[in-house]
Amino acid sequence: MSALGTTQDGGRGTAVAAMLQNPKVLRSIYYAFLAVLAIGFLFPLFWMIGTSLKSGPESLSDATSVIPHHPTLEGYRQALDVLPHYFLNSVKLAFLNVLGLLVVASLAGYAFARIKFPGRDAVFVVVLASALIPNIVYLIPQYVVFRNFGWVDTHYPLWVPRAMTPVFGTFLMRQFFMSIPKELEEAARIDGASVFTTFYRVMLPLAKPALATVALFTFVDSWNDLLGPLIFLNSPDLQTLPVALALFQGEFFTNTPGLMAAATLTIIPIFVVFLLAQRYFVQGVVMSGMKG
Predict the structure, then answer these.
(1) Single pTM value for the model
(2) What does the alpha-carbon distance between residue 18 and residue 244 come to, in Å, rounded to a whole number?
(3) What is the CATH number of domain 74-288?
(4) Which of 103, 134, 93 is nearest to 222 (CA)?
(5) Rounded CA gap, 134 and 97, in Å?
(6) E strands, 80-175, in order
(7) Paired residues of 271 in beta bridges
(8) d(CA 204, CA 224)
(9) Domain coordinates in residue numbering, the chain
(10) 213 near 285, Cβ under 8 Å?
């Protein structure tokens, strides 16, 4: 009997090993694992949307459930009463940040990738090293400088520093420009194009994937910025969406359905921008890491 059992166990082991070597079985296991992982990552989103449809008492009595028992749009009504003005400020700052950073990052990235000048690599290392300094370290000196400029309680501190110091954007653009064959640039030079003309007419159109990647990261960074408006803005008319979300939280009570409804509405622009730029985003991330 023991020999028969050993034979059966060996047969099962061989069958399992054969199944695991089947590409279709492996692919099914892989997709099942990714599906479980995706559900885990998406659960907070489902909970946020479900809570936004709850009433105030239900959000307190049944806070962990995803599906509301008595759905209501009261939270969205409260959110729409608060968000529109803050939304316009966030759109304005996101546009200025994206536009300014794309201009500076593309020019700096092209210079570090293609233009030879003394100390180029050393300067690039210094630029990358500056990213290691936490923002909180120079927050007070920065505030003093902006106060002397008369920029406190204006939108300038929320987009000028970010646009003028695009460390990540410069790195990404440099990597992408280095992946473009030099023959295209040399052909433009033979035709009499200047350095800027070559950059604008030849290199920049090819860099759409990298530009889309930088724009997406910049948009999300600007859209979610809470510390900047809290530090540099005093007037309610200048505040942005992250500050508006904080208005739903009081000292002793939080309007959870209103807060979750406002958060749901706030992430819609990010979702739309990502869908529009997804193809370029993936291509830009892949191609920017091809050369060092």
Answers:
(1) 0.81
(2) 58
(3) 1.10.3720.10
(4) 93
(5) 20
(6) none
(7) none
(8) 28
(9) 2-52, 74-288
(10) yes
